[in-house]
Amino acid sequence: MTMQSGPVYDFIVCGSGASGGVVASQLAENPDVQVLLIEAGGDERVTQVNDSRVWMQNIGSERDWQFSSEPCAALNGRTPPLPMGKVLGGGSSVNGLIWARGHRNDFESWAKAADDPDWSYESVLNVYKRIENWDGPSDHARRGIDGPFYLTHPKNPNPVALALRDAAAELGISAAEDLNGEAMEGSGACGIPNVPVKGDSERVSVATAYIRPRMAQPNLTVILNTCVEQVILQGNKATGVRIRQNGQATEVTARHEIILSLGAINTPKVLMLSGIGDAELLSTLNIDLVQHLPGVGRNFQDHILVAGCCWEYPKPQAPRNNSAEFTFFAKSDPTLLTPDLQPVLEECAFGSEITRPQFQLPVDPSLAWTLAPGLVRPHSRGQVFLTGNRFKDPVRVEANFLSDERDVKALLKGIALCREIGNSAPLRPFVKRELMPGQLTDADMLNFLRNSAGTYFHQTCTAKMGTDKLSVVDGRLRVYGIEGLRIADGSIMPEITTGNTMAPCVMIGQRAADILKRDNGLN
Ligand SMILES: Cc1cc2nc3c(=O)[nH]c(=O)nc-3n(C[C@H](O)[C@H](O)[C@H](O)COP(=O)(O)OP(=O)(O)OC[C@H]3O[C@@H](n4cnc5c(N)ncnc54)[C@H](O)[C@@H]3O)c2cc1C
Which of 31, 158, 299, 385 could cross-link with 396 by S-S, CB 3.0 to 4.6 Å? Predict the structure, then answer.
């Protein structure tokens, strides 16, 4: 194929996040390919992004889309916030920096859903190895050391993290030197997570590892503070996108393909605004139907994180590194094939809007620590809806957290397990008293769970890859029924992975770039 230069781009990548930034950078590797990368957020070179220790300060800032869920009945009607990155690098620029690749079984099930062995564990392991520059215990079979994405263990972790590892190991959750090694093929493990941090605190993101190194190339155009509002379709062929910059709407044209990488809320939003979605839902908003795909916006999944359990330190201990230096994977029920719980250390008293005042949690992070129960194989499903037919009309997200009783049961087990670990002997040097929840009746513990559960920041699965009637893309990430349009971001996951979702999204971006290159004869 001959690529053309000039005002028409060969590929337009919409969204510069964990997936989209990788797609654009990898396509631009070939100097003959003209790539346009469009990002609604701004420059990521600010302290709150660069300094991995203060990542929480991005939440609620201009670098966060500030979505929130509709009232969740099973959370006592609460409306949990659903932060998502809005800046060059997307979530990879604002997130908590835990790198977790997902369990072997996740990818085996994706390969089955897509009917495509290229998504199997063996296959994605090779993709991960090309991405990673792993500076940790060597594992040639599983870890890459030559890729662009630097990963290591946090330096000099908080002693409470090491005590938690000892305590979890005493309960039979084996301590792994590398949580992304063999640990991700078994029944569970605990340890110090991998983090993309250089030196003491410098965040490595998709922006710094993939986009910035190519920004001076004439064949990669990156535009910031510009919103993609709609895909332009001629018949069933995607030919360009409508964008808004400084209030002005314009159109840009793609000679070959358009890739939507807007994240699991805005990707289905832009699809629906473009006439791709459930025919009935679109007709109620007077959107002309181009392609009936009833799965668009459905199958919303997020891990569910419980704010708590908290303990007070006997003497203040300042947070270190990314304030989340310990995690573990365990099964809430031994008959499960894959671990479903992933609690995480938060180096502060982490409570919800209800429990913070109720339990009088201290604000100073050095006074307390939290082992927050997390559910990483949720059964609850949500949906993203439009509220109007213009981009500026907000989306309605029904997260439906804990709507499936199995999730309630698993998280009650998770709370019990975290309390057992936190109150065990290895933690005694770090405990003055348990702040929350303490010993409660079953009914009160259930109420504590409903008042404390919310997002793990891992919104995914709303334009799923697969072959059933709710699938939106096939194994090659092509939108069904539309020519020249692919999706590459967390929305394509058929099921959310077992672990934090940045790493799988980077892998999806790399897979998408490989597929695009192959299908467009660019190799
Ligand atoms: C506060 C927080 C903490 C997190 N902690 C962790 C963690 O510790 N470990 C981990 O693995 N994961 C974590 N995550 C999740 C992880 O960052 C995401 O799963 C991942 O970034 C999703 O990748 P994505 O490519 O699907 O979307 P994103 O990375 O969200 O990228 C989407 C991009 O598209 C842009 N965009 C959206 N709409 C438009 C539009 N209309 N026009 C133009 N651009 C648009 C966005 O601004 C964004 O830059 C966290 C996320 C948050 C928000």
Answer: 385
